[in-house]
Q: What sequence folds into this?
């Protein structure tokens, strides 16, 4: 199940340049590159002549030249040159997709181009905001995108999957959790009061004693999760809104379906302390990366079972409240898109 009329992250800004990059997105092969002026361009990764992936070709000025028989396509997707021939057939063009650079990511619109409004791109300003230090990465995940969304909406797993980095038992046993639902948004707020800081927080926060820790997960469809996380020395007023003497971070996640069983996972960690010190940024990034590799192992093992057992029955527990709310939103949005597509097809 894919939602089409949304902006997705196609690549990191640095991945797209003058060498064409082929990437499957929502089950469609796409090729991305930049014009000589640096503007991002995305085509369907299939030559209009005989279907060779255009990502095997090369850029000649602002045209992409197919590797097979040398047809060249301009950034509007139209063929502009056929070797040895003056006449260019009408149908010699490839599908293009709207693309935009924002927050150090390249965003793509896979749905109806008439609906693509860059103003609706989900806010990830922490990635290039001078008040924050931030570093991100890309992970290829052998699992359906919704398994990644589920993972970030239920952070009790930190106690088990990440007990060597960002988790400890206090998270699962002594947390106060609240789920706020809006039509297109779920926010899961978790407070852990007067608990020992987990290993990563001890390393980067220099806490002497127990802390009050928060995790506020903000989910926006189809697959954006912005986590406001941090801790302050216990009893100093963080639950009442006074965050001082501790650390605050944003864990930022954008998941883009590749196929039904694989995903592109773009993530970054931003921090609001020691923001101009790349060593701090790197140290935090490495800790979170270690944790995320632990998650990737979990998703792919889940997916292997799901590939064996089609739609197996499953049990829900109290900690799933946020996961269930998000799945409901996604199912409704998918129904809405399908209904709109049926109406459009009938017109
Ligand atoms: S397949 Fe691309 S030019 Fe022939
Ligand atoms: Fe995790």
A:
């Amino acid at each position: 199940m894919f939602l089409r009329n949304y902006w997705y992250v196609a690549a990191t800004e640095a991945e797209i340049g003058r060498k064409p990059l082929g990437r499957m997105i929502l089950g469609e092969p796409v090729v991305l590159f930049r014009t000589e002026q640096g503007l991002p361009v995305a085509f369907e990764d299939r030559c209009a002549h005989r279907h060779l992936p255009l990502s095997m070709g090369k850029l000649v000025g602002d045209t992409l030249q197919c590797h097979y028989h040398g047809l060249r396509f301009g950034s509007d997707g139209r063929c502009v040159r056929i070797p040895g021939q003056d006449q260019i057939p009408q149908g010699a063009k490839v599908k293009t997709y709207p693309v935009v650079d924002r927050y150090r990511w390249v965003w793509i619109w896979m749905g109806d181009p008439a609906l693509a409004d860059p103003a609706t791109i989900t806010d990830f300003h922490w990635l290039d905001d001078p008040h924050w230090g931030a570093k991100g990465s890309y992970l290829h995940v052998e699992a359906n995108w919704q398994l990644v969304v589920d993972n970030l909406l239920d952070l009790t797993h930190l106690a088990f999957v990440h007990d060597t980095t960002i988790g400890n038992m206090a998270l699962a046993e002594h947390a106060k959790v609240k789920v706020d639902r809006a039509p297109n948004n779920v926010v899961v707020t978790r407070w852990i009061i007067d608990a020992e800081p987990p290993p990563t927080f001890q390393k980067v926060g220099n806490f002497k004693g127990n802390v009050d820790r928060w995790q506020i997960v903000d989910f926006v469809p189809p697959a954006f999760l912005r986590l406001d996380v941090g801790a302050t020395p216990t009893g100093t007023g963080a639950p009442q809104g006074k965050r001082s003497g501790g650390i605050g971070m944003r864990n930022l996640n954008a998941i883009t379906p590749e196929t039904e069983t694989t995903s592109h996972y773009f993530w970054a960690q931003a921090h609001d302390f020691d923001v101009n010190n790349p060593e701090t940024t790197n140290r935090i990034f490495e800790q979170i990366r270690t944790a995320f590799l632990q998650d990737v192992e979990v998703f792919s093992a889940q997916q292997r079972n799901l590939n064996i057992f089609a739609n197996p029955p499953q049990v829900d527990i109290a900690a799933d409240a946020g996961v269930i709310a998000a799945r409901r939103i996604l199912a409704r949005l998918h129904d809405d898109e399908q209904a709109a597509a049926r109406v459009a097809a009938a017109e």
Remarks:
- The chain has six helices and 18 strands.
- Residues 143 and 304 are 8 Å apart (CA to CA).
